[in-house]
């Protein structure tokens, strides 16, 4: 029997839902990146082309599936291309845990399919042009939250939250 692939959204957003500006993150939070690397180590990623090509993009050492209408002639190592989300999920059907890295439209489409959200809340209102989609808090249970204050390496405080989808009653 094949195991179901679990889909996990991982993102950081400001209090006003911003996740990016000009295809980059609007903040630099080294401890949040360390958390990201720890959580996603050895796992497969799904992301849109612009997220994959962003200057500060994080790529999986394991497998990256990029959703794009125009795949390049030559794929980078550990990288595969899919025309849409069902194709991306099918490519990764042998994986147990798959992380969704965005961007905004990918998050929007994957939200109903996700089992968990690793959602860091950056405690600030920032300017941006990409936003995390609204979601129903009633659909999710906050399983853990770790607060990180400001310091010389972190201009903003943030909370690294893990939300687990509630099972239907």
From TrEMBL:
What reactions does this protein catalyze? (6S)-5,6,7,8-tetrahydrofolate + NADP(+) = 7,8-dihydrofolate + NADPH + H(+)
**Protein name in the entry:** Dihydrofolate reductase
From which domain of life does this come?
A: Bacteria
Source organism per UniProt: Dyadobacter beijingensis
Q: Which SUPFAM superfamilies match?
A: Dihydrofolate reductase-like
Summarizing the function annotation, the protein's role is:
Key enzyme in folate metabolism. Catalyzes an essential reaction for de novo glycine and purine synthesis, and for DNA precursor synthesis.
Q: Which family does it belong to?
A: Belongs to the dihydrofolate reductase family.
* EC numbers: 1.5.1.3
Keywords in alphabetical order = NADP, One-carbon metabolism, Oxidoreductase
PANTHER family documented for this protein: DIHYDROFOLATE REDUCTASE
Question: What region holds the DHFR domain?
Answer: 6-165
* Functional pathway: Cofactor biosynthesis; tetrahydrofolate biosynthesis; 5,6,7,8-tetrahydrofolate from 7,8-dihydrofolate: step 1/1
Membrane-spanning ranges = none
PROSITE patterns assigned to the protein according to its UniProt record, in alphabetical order: DHFR_1 (PS00075), DHFR_2 (PS51330)
**Entry keyword annotation includes rRNA processing:** no
Q: Which Pfam families match?
A: DHFR_1
């Amino acid at each position: 029997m094949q195991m179901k692939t679990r889909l996990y959204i991982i993102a950081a957003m400001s209090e006003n839902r911003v996740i990016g500006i000009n295809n980059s993150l609007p903040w630099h939070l080294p401890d949040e990146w360390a958390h990201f690397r720890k959580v996603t180590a050895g796992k497969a990623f799904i992301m849109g082309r612009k997220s994959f090509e962003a200057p500060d993009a994080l790529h999986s050492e394991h497998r990256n599936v990029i959703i794009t209408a125009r795949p390049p002639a030559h794929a980078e190592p550990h990288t595969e291309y899919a025309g849409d989300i069902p194709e991306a999920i099918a490519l990764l059907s042998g994986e147990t845990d798959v992380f969704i890295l965005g961007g905004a439209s990918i998050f929007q489409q994957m939200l109903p399919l996700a089992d968990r959200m690793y959602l860091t809340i950056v405690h600030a209102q920032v300017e941006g042009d990409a936003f995390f989609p609204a979601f129903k808090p009633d659909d999710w249970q906050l399983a853990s939250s770790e607060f990180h204050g400001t310091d010389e390496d972190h201009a903003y405080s943030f909370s690294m939250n893990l939300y687990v989808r509630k099972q239907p009653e």
